[in-house]
Queue: 2 jobs
Job 1
Amino acid sequence: MDFRHQVAGRDALAGLQLDALLVVVVGAALDPGLDPAVARLVKDAVEQGDLALKKGKSLYLHRPAGLKVARLAIAVAEDASPKAVKAAAAQALGLVKHGAARALGVAVSGAALDAGHAEALVTAASDAAYLYRHTKPSAPPAPPFRTLTILCRKDEAKAVQQGIRIGSAVAAGVELAREYANRPANHCTPSVLAAQAKKLAKSHDLKVEVLDRAAVEKLGMGAFLAVAQGSDEPLRFIVARYNGGAKDAAPVVLVGKGITFDTGGISIKPAAEMDEMKFDMGGAASVLGTLRAIAQLAPAVNVVGIIAACENMPSGRAVKPGDVVTTLSGQTVEVLNTDAEGRLILCDALTYAERFKPAAVVDIATLTGACVVALGHHHSGLFTTDEAVAARMLEASRAAIDPCWRMPLDDEYDEALKSNFADMGNVGPRAGGAITAAMFLRRYTKAYPWAHLDVAGTAWKSGAAKGATGRPVGLLTHFVLGYAA
Ligand code: BES
Ligand code: MN
Ligand code: ZN
C-alpha cells in the first residue's frame, strides 16, 4: 500500500475523488468544522437511530448524498488520542475491506493530527490490508487497497508526513513478521528463515551472516545445540547487521527466539493447539521485521539482529530431562524440562551478543505460557533491571501503541533455579513461571543493559482470527530509533 497526505480541510470533503472516505468522529459532539455534507449525513443517521456518537459505533453508506466518493465509512473514537483514533479507523476499514475500494482517504474530525495519529492510521490500514495466502491458494483476494490519503490541515502536514514515514516502515516490518510467523513449520524451517534474512540483506542493505551446526559447535553453544539435536532439520544461527551509525558507536542488539516448531521435546506437549507452536519463532520474525523497518528509515544507529533458529523435537537423539549441558558462557544447566527450550537457545545467543559491546540488548521470545496467564493477550511482558532501558521501552511502547507491562526481577526469584547437578536448572515451580524464565536469562546478561520481552500472549491470535500479529515490531522500531544520533 502507498501512504500519502493531502491538505484538504475536514470542511472540504464533499468534492474529494476517492473510492472510499473514512471519517473518524472524535467524541460525542460533532466538530463544527466538519464538512457540511458529511455533518448532515452524520446528524441524520444519529436522529434516525442508525448511529450513536459513542465509542465503538460505526456506519457504512454507499453513494452518500452530497459527496463525490462512492463509499463512506464513519466510526466514532472515544477521544482524540492516537490509540482511540486507531481503533475507530480499524473499525471503519473493516467496513470497506471486503469491497472494491482501492483509493482510500481518511479524515479525523475533532482532533489536531500529529505524527502519532498518522502512524496509527497507516499501521491500521496496512493491518487491514494483509491476508495470508502463502499456503492457501483458495484464499479470497486480499483487500484491494492501493493508497491511503490522510486528509489534514496545512499546519498539520509536516507532522503527518513524518508519521506516515515511520508508519510505512513499521507497517512493512509488521507485515514481514506476520507473514513468516504465519507460515507453517514445514514451510518456515530454520534454513528458510536464514534464506529470508539473506534476501532481506540484499534488498535492504543489511549484512547477514549465517552459522551452521559446525560453527555453533566450534563456538561452544552447548545449550542451543542440546535443543536442536532432537531434530533432523538443521539449526541456523543468524546474525544480521544494520550499520547506520558511526563505526565505533555501540549497537542495539535484538535477540529473537526462533523455534520454528516447539513440540516440547521429550517433555512433550499435549496435542490440543500444538499447531500454534509454529508461531514459536515470532520473536525471530519480529527481529527481521524490525531490521526491515529500520533499514527503510535509515537512522544514524547501529543494530545487530541475532536469531537462534531450530526445532524442538523428541527423538532418539533428543536431549533428555536431567541432561546437563554447558552453555557458551561456561555455566552449566540441568535440563529439567525439555519444553523450557526457549531460554536454552537464548542464553547462548545472549552470551554471543557480548562481542558487540552493545549499548543495549533486547531479547524477544514467545517464552512462557505463564506470561499469557499473567498478562493475557494485550500487554507483552517487559523484564529489565535497568531503569533507563525500562523508561525507553515503555515510551517506545506508548508511541507505537504496542503495549507492554513491566514485571519484577527481584533476586528472591532466583532461588527457584537452584540445581544439585549443575549451576542452575532450566525451570522453577509453576508459580511465577514468566519471572523465573526471565531470571534464567538474567544470569547471561550481566555484561550490558538488557531487557526481555515475553510475547507469548501477543505475537499471535488464537481462535477464528488465528494468525500472527507482527508484534512487537512497532515497539522495537521506536526503541531503536530512540538510540539514533
Ligand atoms: N513456546 C512455549 C511457551 C508458550 C506456551 C507460548 C503456550 C505460548 C503459548 C515455551 O517453549 C514453553 O513451552 N514454555 C513452558 C515452560 C515450562 C516448561 C517451564 C511453558 O510455558 O509451559
Ligand atoms: Mn517449549
Ligand atoms: Zn517454545
Job 2
Amino acid sequence: MSSQVQKAEVQTLVYFLRRGKVLLIEKKRGLGKGFFNGVGGKVHKNESVEQAALRECEEEICALPKKLHWQGLLEFINYKKREIEMIYVHVFLCKKWKGKVKETEEAKPFWFKLSEIPWDKMWEDDKFWLPYVLRGKKIFASFKFNRWKLINGNVMVLENGRKIKTRN
Ligand code: 8OG
C-alpha cells in the first residue's frame, strides 16, 4: 500500500550571531512550542524564501536582518500512519540587523554561548547539522521522523558545490 504526501511546505530558519553567541528563541506556539530554535516559519504564497525569512525575523523578534547568509537546506520527512509530511527548511545566518531584539507574543529570545547550546531542549536532529552551520559551513541534511520522533538522517557538508563530508 502506498503512502501519500499530505503536506509539503517550504520554511525558513535564521540564526543570529553576535560576539561568539547565537540567538535562540523559545517558541510560544506552533510546531516546536517550548523548544529552542532559530527564528523562522513558513514561506507564504507570493513571497520569496528570503522575504519570508526577513518577515519572520521582524514578526518573532522585531529585528530585521541587513544581510542573510544562506547556509543550506534541510529536508524533514515525517511519517504518520499512511501519510507523509515534508518540510524543506532554508537555513541562514545573520550577523547584522536593524532594531533591538525583543520578546514578542510568538517568541522569547535568548543568547547562548556556542559552547552552551541547550541541545536537549531542541529538535533532536539539530545537534547533527547546526554545529556546521554555526561554523559557516553550507549543508544539505535529510531526516526521517515517525510522528516527529527522529528515525534516521544524513548530513552533507558542502564546499563550492562539492560534497566534503557525509554523516549518517
Ligand atoms: O511557525 P511554525 O511553528 O510552523 O515554525 C516551524 C519552524 O520549525 C520552522 O522554522 C521550521 C522549524 N523546524 C521544523 N522541524 C525542525 C527541526 O527538526 N529542527 C529545527 N531546528 N527546526 C525545525 O519544522
